[in-house]
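re the bet — no i am not wrong, look at it urself. input seq straight from the record:
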Amino acid sequence: MATHSDADLILRLYDLRRESVMREARAWFAGWMPATPEEAKAVLAFGPGENAWMRQVTSYWEMAFSMANEGAIDAALFAKNCGEGLLFCAKCQVLKERFPGAWTRTMPEAETFIARSTVAQEKLAMFRKRFA
């Protein structure tokens, strides 16, 4: 059963997503879809710009999923509020399938959470269909 502390943490996570650079990074990653392995691999090259945005977005969600995986937040409540994280996890999975060897970024904390949550599995399946 979710507590007031769980709800507070969900709201704090939401507030972090509203920071201006994070908003820019989220908007870019949500809309970016490489057409070639070279485009995918270029974003993985460490540096500023798109690579920094990709790392910011995926590491933010990996941090949030790790909190749920470790029991720091109610898993059922988190599953209902982590849609964007699931979208980005689905995107990483699809890119890895489309561009094996070129795209290596994964979200293991998200995948661990998904394996334990029926709600997350259903949302992930919906997001993966959008990338088809």
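see?? The chain has one domain: 4-131. told u. also The first helix runs from residue 4 to 17. so pay up
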